[in-house]
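Let us practice reading a record.
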Amino acid sequence: MSLQIKVPTVGESITEVTISTWLKNDGDYVALDEVIAELESDKATFELPAEGAGILRIKAQEGDTLEIGAVICEIEESTQTANSAPESSTSPSSETTEAAKSTGEIHEMIVPTVGESITEVTISGWLKEDGDFVEMDEVIAEVDSDKATFELPAEANGILRTVAQEGDTLEIGALICKIEVMEGGAPTQTAATTTPASSPSSNGTYAAGHPSPAAAKILAEKGIAASAVKGTGVDGRITKEDAEKAQKAAVTKPESKPSKEAATAPMHTAGISRNEERKKMSPLRRTVSRRLVSVKNETAMLTTFNEVNMKPIMDLRKQYKEQFKEKHGVGLGFMSFFTKACCVALQEWPAVNGKIDGDELVYHDFCDISIAVSAPKGLVVPVIRNAESLDFKGIESEVVRLATKARDNKLTIEEMTGGTFTLTNGGVFGSMMSTPIINAPQSAILGMHNIVQRAVVEEGEVVVRPMMYLALSYDHRIIDGRESVSFLVRVKQLLEDPSRLLLNV
């Protein structure tokens, strides 16, 4: 009986593929799931596994272009075929069958719904290679949205077949990968290493010197031949890491033939690198850019300034920070003082805590304070809910928890949604003064800056004090000058006399 193998579906928008290479010859014995050919589409390269064990009968040749569903080869299945296979191939393959047995089912994984307002995601990295065995719920990839990073768990046990590549942007519901479902544990040996006929030569396996799809993409982009790269993967396979290292080594090599422009230009840069690097903007960076431009264009944004003498707070922290940390298990930072002061001032000047919704003004009787955090992939703004009801310990604990999750790219959509007022601290990077941009749809944002010893006048005498500039950017459509200035003066008053925060005066 002959088993027809057809060109598989490799992506929603892909209608045809080209046979790049046959890894087995016509008449060769092939084992179940053994890679027999490589197929190329206009987007990626795919491996074609055997769907049964038997004698291979090739129907299409290298270079042929076939539509999805067309017959590409046949496998003659028979007991004589299995018995005629080399003994060295039957013994290991039987061990593989005992460890993991293919069910013949192909499980298609699609991009899951990760939030109501998110319509697409970008694959930031595959944690498993194409052809790897994956277990149920094992994290196989990381995907980026315009708000957060999510982990993609495997939905079945089996062999991973990637469809989308790193950097691809997919809509929600699009096919991202397939899993050839298998029963039992991970295979102890792959079919490619169990049969001598699967080797292109008697000295190595097919995997030796052969790049994975991700590695092949990197090498192609950099113009590096696979033969010039030494693989460190299983059986000498070239991994993504190998390709990245080769890329770096290639960049450092001098150009063998200078261009016409280089030949005519004065040689003032001899020995100095003038390379350029281009990187695609992440979804998070694109969204931040779009929102910032939108705020500048659609709001009547102004900024008012004031300065604060930080000595009272610094003296208070110096006196009690050790006892505070020993009792509560968290450090006493500046953020809790600023958050408490802003919550008091927001309740006294509710317009600063409001927003514009169409033709309506919305005021809140709660303070959800957004804290701007610089994460590895860009600026994120997690929210401390009902900050007005928290004490210093509660605020500091939330700041540490949210900042840690932000730096680990573990924030959820819920933790970044909402917020009625934002605090941003450019002072940690040395900023002396800035005009922060409003975090829409909020109406105001308070910018903190670095603390500098400056000469100030107190009671007719010049003294040196640790001073900080504060900047309040606000939407003049909802907040008048009187309210913005009064709010900032109230914050200054509470910070320069922190006992007011305890007495609520």
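A brief commentary: The longest helix spans residues 311-328.
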